[in-house]
Write a structure and sequence with these properties.
216 residues; Rossmann fold; 2 domains; three-stranded parallel β-sheet; two-stranded antiparallel ribbon; 5 strands
């Protein structure tokens, strides 16, 4: 249950950010700080978000900022406290166009590295030319590919049960999520690739090229 949120922490309505954290019952080391529940996102300024993130960095190994869609104040606040970024997009022309705009803003803010996560990918549809391929999206955005999440109806089933897909051993999307996390921790970790003839070798080559071009 949410008692304090992000704005409450910024306004000093709780003793510290720790009082506002919600611990996940399934994962001991996972804690969440909820976004504003009743106030506008403009209640938080980028410099305040940056200061809070500095505090959080001192307490956690990884701090993930779930950035809202669009480029309004929520986006500006999120990137103010970020060291690096993962751009999540679907393999659709309109989505990739929006992602390209976001990449430009991230580059202008001097956030690096910026990596690509391709979501809801359908390899069989892409092979028929009815969806942008992994290569198409990479060429447009010019980003390193950290992972690809396939379209998976088990994600809907997990969501309806209030369970994360990563706990579903039969979920291909869940497997992809877990392997993306491993690649965040260790860039040399193996990449997930959907079972599709010829696609596995292509994706392995992409990740090999990306790893070889990582900045020092």
């Amino acid at each position: 249950r949410i008692v304090f949120d992000l704005v409450d922490v910024i306004d000093g309505k709780c003793r510290s950010f720790r009082q506002a954290l919600i611990r996940d019952k399934r994962f001991e080391n996972l804690q969440i700080l909820a976004s504003a529940q009743s106030r506008d996102k403009d209640a938080v300024k980028p410099e305040q978000m940056k200061a809070l993130c500095q505090e959080l960095k001192g307490a956690f190994d990884y701090v993930l900022l779930d950035c809202p869609a669009g480029i309004e104040m929520g986006f500006k606040n999120a990137i103010a406290g970020a060291d690096e970024a993962i751009v999540v997009t679907n393999p659709e022309v309109s989505a990739v166009r929006d992602a390209d705009r976001i990449v430009g803003l991230l580059e202008a803010a001097e956030i690096k590295p910026i990596q690509l996560l391709l979501n809801r990918f359908k390899p069989n549809v892409a092979q028929k030319g009815q969806m942008l391929s992994v290569e198409d999206v990479q060429e447009i955005l010019n980003l390193q590919l950290i992972g690809m999440v396939p379209e998976d109806e088990r994600v809907v089933h997990a969501s309806n049960k209030g369970e994360p897909a990563v706990l579903d051993a039969k979920s291909k999307a869940g497997l992809a999520y877990r392997q993306i996390v491993q690649r965040l921790i260790d860039p040399g970790a193996p990449a997930y690739a959907p079972e599709q003839p010829g696609l596995m070798s292509k994706i392995k080559r992409m990740f090999t090229v990306n790893l070889g071009s990582q900045p020092n």
